[in-house]
Amino acid sequence: MMARRTGRRPGNPNTRQAILAAARTAFAERGFDAASIRGIATAAGVDPALVHHYFGTKEELFRATMEVPIDPAQLLPGVLAGGREGVGERLVRTFLDVWDSPAGTPAVALLRSAVNNEWTARLMREFLVTQVLRRVLDHLDIDPAELPLRGSLVATQMLGLAMTRYVVRLEPVASADPETLAAAIGPTVQRYLTGDVSA
Amino acid sequence: MMARRTGRRPGNPNTRQAILAAARTAFAERGFDAASIRGIATAAGVDPALVHHYFGTKEELFRATMEVPIDPAQLLPGVLAGGREGVGERLVRTFLDVWDSPAGTPAVALLRSAVNNEWTARLMREFLVTQVLRRVLDHLDIDPAELPLRGSLVATQMLGLAMTRYVVRLEPVASADPETLAAAIGPTVQRYLTGDVSA
């Protein structure tokens, strides 16, 4: 038998599925912050230690429920490292790198599903807010009162980019190279994050 | 029997449905420009005069196939009347006026459907390009070589706004007043239409 590359065990498939189902319900109904590993374990009829053993942290469990092999915690440091200047363009470029790659296929599937399934839409909203936007905005030291509007404005542009490039496939955005799009759309995201967005 | 308010006859329901089905196929397969009333009539097994009689112009027939009671030809003059300056903000405000109104309900349904149905996605793409973006860009006297990129960049922002406000319903964009959104998002659309978008 080959040595496992990760310390995390795949575990009993039925137990895994029960935990994932309980986690989906908890994250969609209560939101990421209010959901707890303990509550999810109780709902799945298992010990909390088993949830950690199979899935790791609450963030990792959340990503597992989304079935998207993208970890914002790994990707975002590269986006944020350069500080405020140019962060919009780096965010667009990183987003396209990931969504153009094989990891993007389940992300597009998730986007399609969120459109027709309120449950998935809620999970996606929670994921966007707690795993992506919150990290970006915290790092950029933005006035907390402005966080929600700035975050959801960024979401309008990034969701629309994903829809236009991968779902509606409107040319030339559908097949433009990432640099062209980062140059055109980066300044929008930059303004939503750090510029003037008030009436 | 009440007097009809319009000169256009509702006609035989089966004939209407046959024409609409033939029109959907033609617009999705061949595109708006290449599709002809004559070809649609032939496919539906009726006289071209009957198509005009029931549905009016090719534009009107296209809108009927989309089942969306929004006529860009009526709305856009108000957006375009003020010229290039502020056109982005007026476009966002008009878009929200329509989509927030009862006429927006079928538009949101169409958006949901386009996400999971390649046929509807093609119709929506054709509608966006030939009925909305082309009119806007023609009027603003934009370099024809730049039309496709500018038009599809506008689409990224407007589709994303629609997705965020009406489908994913991410707050505060979901319930922000139109003026706030027009002020925040208008400058993006303005830059995509008339500003610098190159690398």
From TrEMBL, chains A, B:
InterPro entries given in the database record: Homeodomain-like_sf, HTH-type_TetR-like_transc_reg, HTH_TetR, Tet_transcr_reg_TetR-rel_C_sf, TetR_C_16
PROSITE patterns: HTH_TETR_2
Pfam families in the cross-refs: TetR_C_16 (PF17920), TetR_N (PF00440)
PANTHER family recorded: HTH-TYPE TRANSCRIPTIONAL REGULATOR RUTR, TRANSCRIPTIONAL REGULATORY PROTEIN
UniProt keyword terms in alphabetical order: DNA-binding
DNA-binding region: 36-55
Protein name: TetR family transcriptional regulator
Keyword Iron: no
Record domain HTH tetR-type: where: 13-73
Annotated source species: Micromonospora kangleipakensis
UniProt keyword DNA-binding, yes or no: yes
GO molecular function annotations of the record: DNA-binding transcription factor activity; transcription cis-regulatory region binding
